[in-house]
Amino acid sequence: MEISARDADLLRQGPWFGHLPARLQDLIFDRSVERSYGKGEAILREGEPGKGMGAVLDGRVHLLRRAGDANEVLLDVGDTGFWFGHYGTLSGGAPSIGSIVAITPVRTLFLPVAAFERIVGAEPRFYRMFADILLDRHAHMFRYLAEAQGLPPEERLRTRLLDLAHVRRASESRHRSGAVSIPVSQAELATMVGVSRQTLSALLARLESRGLIEVGFRTVRVLA
Hints:
By secondary structure, the chain is α+β, with helices and mostly antiparallel strands. It has 2 domains: 5-136, Jelly Rolls, CATH 2.60.120.10; 153-222, Winged helix-like DNA-binding domain superfamily/Winged helix DNA-binding domain (Arc Repressor Mutant, subunit A, Orthogonal Bundle), CATH 1.10.10.10. The chain is 45% helix and 23% strand. The protein has helices at residues 5-12, 15-18, 22-31, 86-90, 113-122, 126-148, 153-172, 186-193, 197-209, and strands spanning 33-37, 42-44, 52-58, 61-66, 72-78, 83-84, 99-102, 106-112, 180-182, 213-216, 219-222. The strands form 3 sheets. The protein has a 4-stranded antiparallel β-sheet. Strands 2-7-4-5 form a 4-stranded antiparallel β-sheet. The chain is globular.
């Protein structure tokens, strides 16, 4: 597809896409399609065969996962530059392990599974480059899950914010350190950490008093 200079620049700012060879970047642009979704619409649905991978060009999404018979659990939030759908794509269309739902109108760049397979079929070394983003997400999520089992709520929140900051840096900049603003509401954070809104507010105040974060309107700026 013909991608705008603005969208191409946005994706090239991310450390994963930005470090891909120019040839592979061009192949992804050429083989992808642009898709738009309304607020509340599912982009990928858990349990359905993977359809491909994509990146958010405009808007915000939730990454959700069912937990037993309970309602879906919010695992992550993403906005411009956020990549999704790697698992179903790299596994050859295996059932998606989570859902991606638009929480605002969303516009995406989407690479279908068939197009991905043609790219790596013609050049197998590109497969590892696609896998790098999945491995990075897996390592951080695995660490978070392990630490969440034994950490008190305040440190559990800090760990979750650090993970969100890591993903945010990966989507917007090549730099892996420094302050970063996360567009997330306190309601979303409370759900992800597993505490009440009141408890979450108190925990954020403690982290802010330690000079680790700054709390804004529907944003948290991670300072260290």
